[in-house]
Amino acid sequence: MGKPDFDRMIKLGEWLESFLDDNTKSWEFRKLAHDFISLYKIDYGITNNEISIMVLELIEDQSSDIQTYYRKGHALSDRTKSEIHDGVDPLQLKNFIKKKARKYFESEPDTLNLFITPVFKNLNTVFEFKEYLLSSFQNISLVKKPWQTALFIEYGSDGYNLPSEIVKSLFQMELSYGKIHTTIVQDEVERTLVKRKLFIVDGYYVEKTDIENDPGLIVPSNFLWGTAASRVFFDFLFLGGQEYFLFCEHCGKFTVVKRKGRKKYCSDICRTAAQRK
């Protein structure tokens, strides 16, 4: 592996470390969104009223029981039958989003509907995909085969009969990976053709130039966390990441390493704590 590929793999791994960390705060997720856009050169603008960050902030302010309700159980459930999508939703996220969006699109009902419809399909994407990725990485670390094969083998079994919920999780990741495309557009100012990479979004889209032209833009954006997480997950592994991650033997945290086989712990604190046992 060449140095540019190795360096990129480590950057992607560090993004995953932060994304998968249970202690990552909403403001850090905002940084992750910006980092992803920079890493992949996506023409997408994240406004101050990014709706996914508002949802994360709302959940972050709740009791531990409510937080756990939204954070856990996604990898083992059928996404199309999720309680959150069926209405068993303590925080009434649909109403929360609708109120927030209406504030910014009050005079544009058609735009409001364009924005809300795709948002409702992905009410809890961050936590869903965190679980999808963690369960996949855990399976890869346990099944001693190349990751492309390991993903489809349940640890402890001798075949490829994965639970249907896990198969659906993998399908969601594969589907989300493809929601970026490259197009060619005319730059009317420079009078030339330029390549642009865009999220494939059904609905309202905020471009980088929207932010550049109006830094205080108040309309909400809706970052595609499922696409970002899936893209980084698969690209990290395609670049050789299978040999450069571990789960800390003390706290269980997903950790990226720069040298194969040299680490067992995510930090000196965990290493010291483990030695004291």
What does this structure look like?
By secondary structure, the chain is mainly α. It contains 13 helices and four strands. The protein has helices at 3-20, 26-40, 51-60, 64-71, 83-86, 93-104, 109-121, 125-142, 147-150, 164-177, 208-213, 225-238, 268-276, and strands at 180-187, 192-199, 245-247, 254-256. The strands form two sheets. A two-stranded antiparallel sheet has the order 1-2. It has a two-stranded antiparallel sheet with strand order 3-4. A hairpin with a 6-residue loop joins strand 3 and strand 4 (254-256). The two termini are 39 Å apart. 26% of the residues are buried. The model has no long low-confidence stretch (mean pLDDT 84).
Features:
two-stranded antiparallel sheet; 277 residues; 13 helices; mainly alpha
Q: State the helix count.
A: 13
How do the SSEs run, as a string of H and E? HHHHHHHHHHEEHHEEH
Largest sheet: 2 strands, antiparallel
- Number of beta strands: 4
Strands of the largest sheet, in order across it? Answer: 1-2
State the secondary-structure class: mainly alpha
**Strand coverage percent:** 5-15%
Overall geometry comes to: globular
| Distance between the first and last residues' Cα | 39 Å
Cα-based radius of gyration, to the nearest Å? 20 Å
Binned, the helix content reads 40-55%
Oligomer: single chain
* Poorly predicted regions: none
Mean pLDDT value: 84
